[in-house]
Amino acid sequence: MHAARITPAPSRGTVLIADKMDVVCTVLARIIVRCGFTPLIVPDGVEVLQVARSAPAGLCCAFLGVSLVHIDGITLAAILAHLSPSFPVVLMSGYPAWMLANRLQHVPRAYFLEKPFALAVVFALLNEIAPLCERTFGTALSPYTPRKP
User: Fold this and answer.
1) CA-CA distance, 128 to 142, in Å (whole number)?
2) What pLDDT shows up at residue 19?
3) What is the pLDDT of residue 10?
4) Contact predicate 21/65, CB 8 Å
């Protein structure tokens, strides 16, 4: 008897992950793989912007910790929304969503994931976001400049 060779299914897209806690990135990456996506972990908000601007094929959404190094996740989500309003961003925090609601209301395509999270919650969120994955990043975009009040 010969062993059957299992071929992995093609990825449904690349999910960018950034959080100050390595364990969160590792656990989330494993969940994302189980959901059929390819994780791309970066260490901080500056790297998130670099990756977004380089426009890797299949980049479909980002999971960002609210308390990132250099640029906090909510500010980063606003910058990404400015660059590409249809790009979905999931913000992660150990705090409940209501505590961040004021800051999130003006960021289009912003979702919230409370830590700790479970496979089923991430899976449902990815299934909701997957159809929204039409976005364009790249060098043709102008650099972000904050709006003055």
Assistant:
1) 29
2) 96
3) 67
4) yes
Mean pLDDT for back-to-back runs of 10 residues, the chain (149 residues)? 50 91 95 91 93 83 93 92 88 90 81 92 89 53 41
Which tokens hold the place of 120?
């089923």
Residue 48: which residues within 8 A CB-CB, separation 6 or more?
16, 18, 42, 62, 64, 68, 71, 76, 80
Tokens of 45: 């908000």
The residue length of the chain stands at 149
- What are the distances in angstroms from CA 105 to CA 60, 101, 118, 138? 21, 6, 25, 26
Question: Over 44-83, what HEC string results?
Answer: CHHHHHHHHHHCCCCEEEEEEECCCCCCCHHHHHHHHHHH
CB count, 10 Å around CB of 68?
A: 23
Encoded amino acid at 22, one letter: D
The pLDDT, as a whole number, for residue 42 is: 95
CA distance 1 to 31: 33
The two structure tokens encoding residue 101: 């609601």
